[in-house]
Amino acid sequence: MCTTHTTYKRSGSVIEFPGSAAPAAGPWASWFASGHPGLGVLPEHVRSTGHGRWWVDHPVRPRAAAVSCAGHVILGGDPRLTRPEGLAPLAHSWIAAPDRFLPLLGAAFERIVPWERMIWVHHDHVPAVHVPPGVTVRRLTPRDAGAVQELGPELAWVAGSWGGPQGLAACGRGRAAFRGPRLLSLACTYYTGSRYEDIAVVTRPEDQGRGLAAACVRALCTDIATRGRTATWTCSRDNHPSRGLAEAAGFRLYREYVHYAVGAPAHDGGRQPRRPALR
């Protein structure tokens, strides 16, 4: 790993890189391998889009690393070579890591809460979904940034992996249901990889139960298949509405895993955690 032309900054005992700066070769290639479904595409998304950050313990010969985007984090490497205070930049996030990292997480943060998750992979063709009269399902364009913004703070998380509403509207990976200029429901690629695209869906509360989300998901899955990739769906195990929509849309359970909501750094006075929005 060469940093001659890479800008980075030191944050305490760790080095921080911008999203597109991490090389695909070296130890990072085995820690964050390409071609995995669900959250596994997060490192590829960060590399290819630049949305997100990397942290390592050494800029040239890293022994442990983290990659983050939109509140989600993946850890890799050897936790025995990382000091707990080095994880401080990852406070108030969801962390997925091998079990060997659990003692380090326990020492680094004042609170860690396990959360069971499920990864679903799209398999089946789904018949066309009828939408109410006056509603149109179409691809998002850069001109729709304002409509995405108007979804409001409760649904704003859906644009987090693209840097905000403007980035999501311009990325070419969103399908939305509109009535006139008003955006009612939205399905988008949340993290994109070389083989899989992990998707996210939101619908205004007053427009739920009308088939809008299913119509957007169907259109998006068609787009993803056209790109030669497979759609995946990641949600909390106890999110039964999300699980039901995934199954109805032709997704099948791939595997379950656990990630951890972490609070403030253990040496930071024990502030209460601010959990990212759930998917």
Write a concise keyword list for the protein shown above.
alpha+beta, 279 residues, disordered N terminus, Aminopeptidase
Number of helices: 7
CATH topology type of the largest domain: Aminopeptidase
CATH first level of the largest domain? Alpha Beta
What is the typical, i.e. mean, pLDDT? Answer: 89
Strand arrangement within the widest β-sheet reads 1-2-3-4-5-6-13-7-12-11-10-9-8
* CATH architecture call of the largest domain: 3-Layer(aba) Sandwich
SSE order: EEHHEEEEHEEHHEEEHEHE
* C-alpha geometry: elongated
Portion in strands: 25-35%
Give the distance, in angstroms, between the N- and C-terminal Cα atoms. Answer: 34 Å
What is the CATH homologous superfamily assignment of the largest domain? Gcn5-related N-acetyltransferase (GNAT)
Return residue spans where pLDDT drops below 50 for at least 5 consecutive residues: 1-5, 269-278
Query: What's the story with the biggest beta sheet?
Result: 13 strands, mixed
Question: Helix coverage percent of residues?
Answer: 10-25%
Structural class: alpha+beta
Compute the CA-based radius of gyration: 19 Å
Describe this structure in words.
- This protein is of the alpha+beta class.
- The chain has 2 domains: 9-116 and 258-262; 120-257, Aminopeptidase (3-Layer(aba) Sandwich), CATH 3.40.630.30.
- It is 20% helix and 31% strand.
- The chain has a 13-stranded mixed beta sheet, sandwiched between helices.
- The longest helix has 15 residues, at 212-226.
- The chain starts with 8 loop residues before the first strand and ends in a 17-residue tail after the last strand.
